[in-house]
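Repro:
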Amino acid sequence: VQLVESGGGMVQPGGSLELSCAASGFFMPAHDMTWVRQAPGKGLEWVAYISSGGGATYFADAAKGRFTIFRDNAKGIVRLQMDNLKPEDTALYYCARGSSGPGLDYWGQGTQVTVSS
């Protein structure tokens, strides 16, 4: 199983970024997928979830209305579109297989997002 995130970078407040997670080594259409982040000096924070078929999505309160999660099962990719970014969104963003907590059994290496003027 391999999950590889990309798309991070530095952006000004109010800007947008789209993160991608390329999955391989397993049958992705059978698995829920999740984005989790870790801000400097803080613990892990669950951000967004998408069901295996893409029909259900959930977001942390901090992400609602600004982030969108979607997936392309044919290509093995999960994306996180982030709009109206704020400095508090600065974090290392991880893609993980599963829905939450101990159910997240595989993680990528993370991609850094920095929101700063």
